[in-house]
Design a protein that fits this description.
Length: about 80
Amino acid sequence: MRIILNDSGIFSFSGLNDSWEDSEGKKLSTCTIITTEPNSLMAVIHDQIPVILRPEDEADWLGRDKDDITVFTEIA
């Protein structure tokens, strides 16, 4: 199965990533895709779907200078 937008354009998922060191000094990189409840079209496939960012929200989501959590809850 191939899932695309109506306009067949490229889209971005919202996600989080981090790198940190454990107590032994080993580096660990982690990532996750943020999910939400599906719409009626996707519900027949799965009970969770990735949050798709609108193109106009991508810069805010990726901006490292953002620390206001309300910006991100409005986007997602």
